[in-house]
């Protein structure tokens, strides 16, 4: 818990030093994003077939943090690295502001029904809500993602990637690596399915809405 708090404070401080994002400018920079993230049901094939994540309605700080991680190679994904490496800090901030402004009309409820019996002990073991917040839509730090309602297949691939940090498709976040190491892939799939079933604030905004 102490290490988690330290990482949280460092991450929040780093984000606070970034330039303020301009959503209007971000709208003009999103052309490279909408080909995947602006199509309902669009699937990626790396490292396995899965729907690309919904990012409209995601927190601005997380969008920036994710792009930074791809640019630095902390998240290993060839396409996203190429895109993120082409962006300035201001570009990232503008895109973050743009996508954060596309939040679904209704905010996620603060509480939902109790998790199924098979999933409840997994949530407790991972202490997931302590970082991702109520309903998995109220993260406790700007750099943490909203997860509620996200595609289950994407969540599953993302969770597994923290186990594969040394491989070409791994992710190098120390907190998440520590969290997932004690879970089997079957348990991670259960968690992903439950989180995806929750009402959330994420959505896919069709391409036509950007033009």
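^ Assign residues to that structure.
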């Amino acid at each position: 818990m102490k290490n988690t708090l330290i990482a949280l404070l460092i991450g929040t401080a780093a984000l606070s030093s970034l330039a303020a994002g301009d959503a209007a400018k971000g709208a003009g920079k999103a052309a490279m994003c909408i080909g995947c993230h602006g199509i309902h049901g669009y699937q990626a094939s790396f490292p396995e077939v899965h729907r690309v994540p919904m990012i409209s309605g995601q927190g601005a700080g997380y969008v920036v943090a994710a792009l930074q991680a791809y640019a630095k190679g902390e998240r290993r994904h060839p396409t996203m690295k190429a895109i993120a490496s082409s962006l300035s800090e201001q570009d990232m901030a503008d895109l973050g502001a743009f996508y954060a402004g596309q939040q679904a009309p209704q905010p996620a409820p603060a509480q939902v029904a109790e998790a199924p019996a098979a999933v409840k002990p997994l949530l407790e073991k991972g202490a997931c809500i302590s970082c991702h917040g109520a309903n998995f839509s109220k993260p406790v730090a700007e750099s943490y993602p909203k997860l509620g309602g996200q595609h289950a297949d994407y969540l599953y691939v993302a969770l597994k990637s923290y186990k594969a940090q040394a491989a070409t498709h791994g992710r190098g976040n120390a907190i998440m690596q520590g969290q997932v190491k004690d879970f089997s892939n079957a348990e991670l799939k259960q968690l992903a399915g439950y989180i995806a079933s929750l009402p959330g604030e994420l959505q896919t905004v069709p391409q036509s809405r950007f033009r």
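The two ends are 45 Å apart (CA to CA).
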